[in-house]
Amino acid sequence: MSVAGESGSRAQQMRDQAQKIEQAAERSTDPAERQRLKEKARRILEQSKMESDRGSGDVDPM
Question: What's the predicted TM-score (pTM) here?
Answer without folding.
Answer: 0.75
